[in-house]
C-alpha cells in the first residue's frame, strides 16, 4: 500500500532508529521513539512482547521486516553495506552511527516504558504479568480512533484534512502512530540549532571539535551554503532509503535469456570479419537443420508411423522364422564292402591322370598368356619411354622456340616502324612523278584545245581591256602565245628524241605516243631519291649480327620447319604457316622497296621471298632423292600455299597504295598491260571475290574516273560562252584536233583492257568518255576531220557504246534531226 503525504518525508536522520533490531511500537514513518525491552535472560517464558515482534505494528513495518529478512537470507543481494573494492578478500563495510549521534536523542514520549514506571515480573514460577504492567502496555498499544457515526459529510480520502500532511485514509489507519510521532518532516534552522546546543551541553568537552562547522546540508542557500550532494548511480535514486526495490529483489532476466535476445551478439567491423561471421552463422544454421533432420528420424516418429500403418489395415507383422535344428545323420556303412579290383584302380588312376593333364594344359595356357602380357607390357613401356623422351625433347624445343619468338617480336617491334616510313617516302616519290607527268599532259591538251575549241576564261587574274574593249592579256594566254609555242616546241623535241632512241617509224600518228617520261633534271632527281630509299632499306639490317635475323631462310624457315616436323598436328592447329607469313612480311616488304611494277618488267617471281615460300610450302621428303622423283614437283604441304598469303597481306596493299597515288598512267599501254597482269596474279592467288582484290580493282577504276572528270571539266570550260574563241584560220588546228582525239582513242583502248575484270564499269567509263569529251569536239569539227576521227572511235568501241552514240558517230551532228 502506498501512502500519499501532503508534506515531504522526514529526513534520514529523523527516521533512523538508534536500535536497528529492536521492536518499535511507534509509527512506521518514525523510528526515533524508544521501545520497552524485556530481559529474556531473567524471564525466558513467552511474553506478550514476543508476540508483538511477530504480529504487532503497521503493514509497512511487516513488509519492511519481511524484505529485510529476505535480503539477509539472499547471498547475492545488495544490502545497505558499502564496498570499496576487494569484495572477495575483505569484509563488507557496514556504516554505523557515531557515538555523538547515538547520544543525541529526542525527548521520550509520555507513553514510554521506563524502569521506574513498571517492572516485568521476574518470578520464574509466575506466568502472569502484573495488572499495572498490562494497563501501561494497553495504553501504549496503538488504537484506531472511533469514527463519528453522525458525521455524514463526504470528505476526500486523499486530501489533507487537518493540515498535518497526511490523508484521511492514513489518519484513520495510523492515528495512534501519528499521535506519537512528534517529529517534523524537515527540521528548520532553529530546531537544528537547539539540537546542536543540547548536544554540546551533553558532551561538554567536545566544543572545540564541533566548533562552528555545520554537520548537515541546508536547503537554504543563504544559510547552508548550497552544498551539492554527490549522486552515485550504482546506489539508485534514493540511496538513503532502506526499502527493497523490485529490481534488487529479483533479476531482470537478461543474463538467462541472453542467447535469445541477442545480447551476446557482436558487431563486426570490416568486410572480411562480416563474411566470416556470415559463414559461421550459415554453419550454425546447417547444424540446426541437420539436428532437426536427425530428430525426425527418432524412435518416436517411427513408432507413430508404425501405428498409423497398423490402423490402415495394411500392416503385416513380421513373422519370426524359427531356425529348424538340424540333426546330424551319419552316412550308413554298408554291411558288405566289395574287394577292389585292378581294373577299377586303373580306371581311377586314368581319371586322375586325365584331370592332372587338363590342369597342366590350363597352367601352360595361363603361362603363355602371362608371357604374352609381359611382352605387351614391355613393348608398352618402351613406347611410353619413347613418348616421354619425345615429349621432353619437344618441351625443350618449344621452350627454346618460344624464347626465340619473343626475341623476334622485339626485333620486329623496333624495325617495322622504320620500314613503314621508308614505304611512305617511296609512295610519295611515285605520286610526285605522276603529278608532274599529268600536269605536262594537261598543258599539252590545253594547247591543242586552244587551237580548235578556244581558251577557257580567266579565273585567277582580272581581265584587262583596252579602249576598244579587247582583253589585253589574251596574247599572253591565247592560242598563239609565247608560252604555248614554247611548250609545243619542247614536245616536238621530246618526240624526236624518243623516235631516235626507240627507232620508231616517223609515220607513227602523233598522239599515240604516251610521252610519260620526265625531263632530264627531274629524272635525275627521281633516280637519286630512289637510290636513297634503297640505302635506307639496306641500313635497317646493318646493325643486326645474327644470321637468322638477317636472312629469313636461315631463321624463320628453319625454326618453323622444325616445329612442323616435330608436331605437324599442333603446327596446323596453331596456324603456324600464317604466323610464318606474318613474320616474313617484314623482309618481303623491305625487298620490294623501290619496286615499280608498272614501269619495269620485274614480276613477283623475281623476288627471293617468293621462291623461299614456294620451297617451304613444297618440302621434299627424306626419301625423295631418287632420280625419278627429283624432276617431279613436291606436293603442297597441308598448311596451303603461303605465297598466296604473302600476296594478300603484303603485295596487294602495296599495289593499292600505288594506284591511289596515281602512279599508274592510263595513257600508257605498257603500264596498263603490267597492271592487268598484276591484278590477274592477285585474283588468281587470293580469289576474285576476296576483299583485297576488290579494293585493288576499285583503286584502278578510280584512276580512270579522275582523268575523265578532269577532261570533262576542261571541255566544259573551253566550250562555255565566256571562253575565248580559237583563231579563225590556223593551219595547225586540224593537226591539234586529230592529236587530241587520237590521245583519247588510246585511253579508250587501255580502258578496254580492263573489261575482263570489270566489264560493266568499263562500259560506263567508255560512254562517259565518248559522250562528255569526244562528242563536243567531233560535233564542232565534223567537216574539218571530225568525221574520220569519229569512225576510228566507232571502230574501237562499237560493242561498248549505246545506240545514240553509235548513231552520232556514224551520222554526225545531223543525227538528232
What share of the residues lie within helices? 55-70%
Q: Compute the separation of the termini in Å.
A: 139 Å
Q: Averaging pLDDT over every residue, what do you get? A: 74
Radius of gyration: 68 Å
Class per helix and strand makeup: mainly alpha
User: What composes the largest sheet?
Assistant: none
Principal-axis shape = flat
Stretches where pLDDT falls below 50 for ≥5 residues? 1-57, 74-93, 97-126, 147-157, 221-227
Strand content: under 5%
Q: What is the number of E strands?
A: 0
The count of helical stretches stands at 31
What would you note in describing this structure?
The structure is a single chain. Helix content is about 55%, strand content about 0%. It starts with 11 loop residues before the first helix and ends in a 6-residue tail after the last helix. Helix 15 (about 340-450) runs antiparallel to helix 28 (about 735-750), helix 26 runs antiparallel to helix 27 (about 690-720) and helix 29 (about 760-780) packs antiparallel against helix 30 (about 780-795). The chain has helices spanning about 10-15, 50-55, 60-75, 100-105, 130-140, 170-175, 175-180, 190-205, 205-210, 220-225, 245-250, 260, 270-295, 300-310, 340-450, 475, 480-500, 520-540, 545-550, 555-565, 570-575, 575-590, 610-615, 625-630, 640-660, 670-685, 690-720, 735-750, 760-780, 780-795, 805-810. It has about 800 residues and is mostly helical. The protein is built from 31 helices and no strands.
